[in-house]
Predict the 3D structure of the following.
Amino acid sequence: MAAFKETKLPPDAPAAQKALGWVDDRFPLSKLWNDQWGKYYAPKNFNFWYIFGSLAMLVLVLQIVTGIFLTMHYKPDAALAFNSVEYIMREVPWGWLVRYMHSTGASAFFIIVYLHMTRGLLYGSYRKPRELIWLFGFAIFLCLMAEAFFGYLLPWGQMSYWGAQVIVNLFGAIPLIGPDLSLWIRGDYVVSDATLNRFFAFHVIAIPLVLLGLVAAHLIALHEVGSSNPDGIEVKETLGADGHPLDSIPSHPYYTVHDLFGVSIFLVLFSAVVFFAPEMGGYFLEYNNFLPSDSLKTPTHIAPTWYFTPFYSVLRATTAEFMYVCMAAVAAYVVFIWLKSRLSITVKSIIAVIALLAIIGMLPQILDAKFWGVVFFGSSVVILAFLPWLDHSPVKSIRYRPDWHKLVYAVFGLSFLTLGYLGTQEPTATKTLISQVCTLIYFSFFLLMPWWSAMGKFKTVPSRVTFHPH
């Protein structure tokens, strides 16, 4: 067993330095700070797209802190929940501010995460050797969706109650186990006190613990392989005499200042929403949720919060008529794979068999459109996890891809935003048709990526990062 060695400091050293030395001898506090930020070298050509990771951490802390204060007064009881929220808003000193910070923070969290994922998509941040970072990030996204869903029921308003009722009932479309699964999730035959209690437990304890672990894993994996950059160049391949990459700089103080500037802008916008428009026209807080839940009165239009609506639109787009389009699309995709893919005959045959079974299952006599709506709803989220293996582009960054690739990304982004908007609106024949077209575009972007991502004339990637000091 090694002998304990204590750091020797001059007798006249500042008290703070002595205290830090005492801690460092017993816990690697300074080492953790230096490894994770203080002396972590990051590419010097970061742009504004790289601010959203730090903002996500800020909002996570904000949500945890405000959530703790809300739980001090909230009552997870069906008979008391709505009134306890009203008590927080009206009677608790500054309770309205804490509640609006938490509700606005939820939407801000998803805005930041969506922008963070967009940056990864544009600059190929999911490509080798960062596949595991992307998978941890995807798991964080799933946890956020679960956290938001469980927390959405807690105010026990009209939209909370009926939104949870609709979403949980979706699991009933799963053959054989669906009804029992829905019953198990609710804990009752309808959304009730049992549902509220278990959702509260997941929202306050279970999901946050998993989320914090995933965030730690995401950051550790990031700092192990190094950050990506807008050029998609591995800066670790060009080292200086000191062993650090020539095209990188210490995160502190350079990116500390960079991030603090971004945080300042964010806090101004965040405060403006909290103080002047916390409902954001009904998108952040629906008007129906200011009414106590009533199991005998269904709202005219039930829709999830805006950050779920792109995927919810995929669910609503899956009608009985649309299934015939899906059957034709699956058949065409299999033919395309047989003609264009370099996979072995065995793999192609397995894909063809699976596709045939799927087409048979899409017949209205076998499985109804509701089931496939749930399948497409889940697939629209899960398919994001496969990006590292779907993208076969010889370059990572969009900067060096063919110009028409930018058009592909723009069409994909526009279709995603359109799905999000349509999910907030009452369905009509025209809106359903548009959502079906956007659904086909959404899935085509990913399923055809192995081919279109490798097509075209690519620009030469420089050996060193491009950086123009301000």
